[in-house]
Amino acid sequence: MSQKFLVFSAHPDDADFGCSGTVAQLVKEGNEVVYCIVSNGEKGTHKVKVSRQAIISLREKEQRAAAGILGVKKVVFLNEKDGEVENTKALRKKIVKVIRQCRPDVVLSFDPVNLVFDNFRRYHRDHRQAAEAVFDAIFPAAGSDAFFKELKIKPHTIKEAWFFASHSPNLWIDISKTINKKIEALLAHASQISSEKELRKKISGWAKETGQEKHLKYAEKFRKLELL
């Protein structure tokens, strides 16, 4: 039976690095996937003469193109300021609204407990703050009518959460048939890619290393939590 998956990402391209092979596989199996991007990605360039709005528009366009490659038909943008994401009540309200509107079975996001700080890019503050906001929105807020009644949307409780970039994974997804889709989706973020050759090498290397943990050719891994 098909399910609905909702993927939260701090910036345009984060989800494509973290779980796009899985997303492509889920779509291939007949599931529906929706993307929700928390920040607008406006600081994702070193071109100081490019306007803020031009960068935002470009990164949104790139994210929609990447999603299309994977078979994701809907992308929601929350438009928080890049580099300034905070786990506030206002952000949690936005996230709860998306969860209640989409009514997913499973939510995917960065792992909120990743606080080991052994990688600057992975533990970007926006990643940590967005992950905590998603976690707090999932439970208890999204599933309880005691929170955000003003939204006037029926509460919704998800079945599971899959957290990527986790140091304590318990779920491995075989992406051997979708590794090329993952790479092509990442290449759609052209403003963020300096070398196609290096990207292909890096992504295939990561996925191969992860796959070897479970005797798979290529894989992505997650920490899965069940709520129901």
UniProtKB/TrEMBL annotation:
SUPFAM superfamilies: LmbE-like (SSF102588)
Superkingdom in the source lineage: Bacteria
InterPro entries per record: GlcNAc_PI_deacetylase-related (IPR003737), LmbE-like_dom_sf (IPR024078)
Entry's Gene Ontology molecular function annotations: hydrolase activity, acting on carbon-nitrogen (but not peptide) bonds, in linear amides
PANTHER family linked: LMBE FAMILY PROTEIN, N-ACETYLGLUCOSAMINYL-PHOSPHATIDYLINOSITOL DE-N-ACETYLASE-RELATED
Protein name as annotated: GlcNAc-PI de-N-acetylase
